[in-house]
Amino acid sequence: MCILSPKLVECGRHRNIETITYADVLDVKGEPGNFRVSIRKRARFVDETLCTGCGICQEKCPWKADSEFDKALAKRKAIYFLYPQAVPNVPVIDKELCAYFQQGKCRACEKFCPIGAIVGVQMLGVAIGGAIGPLLGGYVFDVTHSYHFAFMVSGMCTIIALILLAFIRVPRKVLN
After folding, report:
1. φ, ψ for residue 50, nearest 5 deg
2. Are residues 74 and 63 in the same domain?
3. Please, which contacts does 72-80 make with residues 24 or more away whose CB atoms are closer than 8 Å?
4. Is 102 in the same domain as 157?
5. 49 and 62 share a domain?
6. Domain tally for the chain?
7. Are 87 and 10 in the same domain?
8. Is this structure's pTM higher than 0.90?
9. Is residue 25 part of a domain?
10. 109 inside domain
């Protein structure tokens, strides 16, 4: 890491390099100087633009597993940094280990995050709504032969969401 980390930081700060982390390369086409790369970006469940990399979420997480980086010689938490001095210095949540994704409980990382960068809960709600919405709309159309009622329900849900949005907690400032 002593040689690699400074180079990663340099790439992360370079204006002509877009660093895409926590992603899988699906396909590479082209020739030197003119590549097209297809990637699949995996969900971190942490907002990269808000997270400061303070590590409080990782400290407070009660769930442990073998660390892949340390070849199972050490333990890591359900929310963890991929490796020391990671670029960007933003943790990821392991859905297979996280109590919230497995049992709907815990959320310690979200509770203790000083700026509200943990977005896993929000993404789960969006995914459920995105899956149920079209099914419900199709069922309403089959019954009424019109999308009018489906649009009314969608509008009501939007209004309710806007009202709930007014009560969402504002990210707190990090105390140094």
Report:
1. -95, -35
2. yes
3. 78/109, 79/46, 79/109, 79/118
4. no
5. yes
6. 2
7. yes
8. no
9. no
10. yes
* Residues 51 and 110 grouped into a single domain: yes
Strands, E, within 72-150: which ranges? 75-77, 79-80, 92-93
Phi-psi region of 68 (alpha: psi -120 to 50; beta: other; left: phi over 0): alpha
CA–CA distance, 69 with 84 (Å, rounded to integer): 9
> 91: domain range?
4-15+43-118
Q: For 110-115, which contacts have Cβ atoms below 8 Å and span 24 or more sequence positions?
A: 110/57, 111/60, 112/56, 112/57, 112/59, 112/60, 113/56, 113/57, 114/54, 114/56, 114/172, 114/173, 114/174, 114/175, 115/50, 115/51, 115/52, 115/171, 115/172, 115/173, 115/174
56 and 109 inside one domain: yes
Q: For residue range 121-175, list pLDDT tens digits in order.
A: 666 667 777 788 888 888 888 998 888 888 888 888 889 988 887 777 655 555 5
Reference 94, options 69, 111, 76; nearest CA is 76
Please answer whether residues 80 and 91 qualify as being in contact, where contact means their C-beta atoms are separated by less than 8 angstroms: yes
